[in-house]
Amino acid sequence: MKVFHPPTLLAPFGVLRLIQFRRNGYSPGVETSPPILEDIRSPVRLESRPQPATVTRERPASDWEEPDCPLCGRRRRQVILRAFDNAAPGDWHRYEVVRCLDCQLCFTSPRPSPELIRQYYPAGYGPHALPLRNRRSPWWSRLAARSGLLFQARKALPWHGQGRLLDFGCGGGSFLQRMHGLGWRVTGVDISPVAVDRICGQLGLHALVGSLPHPELPPQAFDVVTMWHSLEHVHDPLEVLRGAHGVLTARGRLLVAVPNFDSLAFRWFGENWFGLDLPRHLTHFTPNTLSAMLERAGFRVRNVRMVRHSHWLRRSAAIARQERRLPWRQQWTRGKVGSRMISSYAFLTRQSECMLVTAER
Ligand SMILES: [Zn+2]
């Protein structure tokens, strides 16, 4: 499927893109191919980052791996993108994203081994920080939660069975804390021992260090499993999804939110797209490849919702400016008004910055 590029924002609400989407839909196996970015063909532009004074990281060659495709296991691939770690201005390495020529999944390769990747998460990594309001919610909030708002929360997050929830990649625990306040029985899993210690010690909630499948989690113990921007960080996402399938009850729900590699923002910003986050993001999902992986893990995909993150456009524009190139289209995304307009346009035409997939066991 060729991606339609609207020439200007005047295209009324992306009608053409919408018609084209409706005609083609999302069908696992038939992939919207992310474009090969121009930069691969014009390497001169790649050298525009100023040479840093120091290279901050040691990289023994043995700690880098070139994995088989995490979805189909084959090895035919094509490099589609080279980009810097935009969270580390002193890092002069360009990381590569490849596309599997068999199933179209895009992933980072070569990538740091599970041991090495720890040094790519800075000490103050945002998602591992504790929630700002580290205390029990006030009485009126709990009362409201138990009446009307609880219904809203149940609607937003499918309330199912006894309300046992597992949050994979729970980070600082803000989501666990919120859902606990709404009456859910919550458990968190995170690879960071520091984050898990804080959740258990300071928030008094149940959390485990590790990944999925987890030896301490019995089968069919949860009604809902959530993954908020965590699946793109793991080395074997299919194994994690199979683990989630194992701990869910029959007809239990899985919610997965990840950046959308088939987004307007990625096509506009390419290597400067905020959602790339190399090399911490190891798999770069589109609605099709995520649906295909969920089905391979045994899930039935119920829906793929677009999620707006207009601030990602502003962050991308800021990164692109550092690289001293900002075409006129991207100038629009620097301010709040422009970025929100473009983000809304992307939402209406189903090419938002992020996506939320609901699947059923
Ligand atoms: Zn593949």
Helix and strand arrangement:
Layout: H1 15-24, H2 38-41, E1 64-65, E2 77-83, E3 95-100, E4 106-108, E5 111-112, H3 139-146, H4 148-156, E6 164-168, H5 174-181, E7 185-190, H6 193-203, E8 206-209, E9 222-228, H7 237-247, E10 248-259, H8 264-269, E11 283-284, H9 287-296, E12 300-307, H10 310-322, H11 328-331, H12 336-348, E13 354-360
Parallel strand pairs: 6-7, 6-9, 7-8, 9-10
Antiparallel strand pairs: 1-5, 2-3, 3-4, 4-11, 10-13, 12-13
This protein binds zinc ion (ZN).
Zinc ion binds at residues 69, 71-72, 74, 100, 102-103, 105.
Q: How does this model look, in words?
A:
- This protein has 361 residues and is α/β, with parallel strands linked by helices.
- The protein is 30% helix and 20% strand.
- It has a seven-stranded mixed beta sheet, sandwiched between helices. A four-stranded antiparallel beta sheet has the order 2-3-4-11, with no helix packed on it.
- Strand 6, helix 5 and strand 7 form a beta-alpha-beta unit.
- Helix 10 crosses helix 12 (336-348).
- It is globular.
- The chain starts with 14 loop residues before the first helix and ends with a strand.
- The model is unreliable at 1-55 and 132-155 (pLDDT under 50).
- Zinc ion is lined by residues 69, 71-72, 74, 100, 102-103, 105.
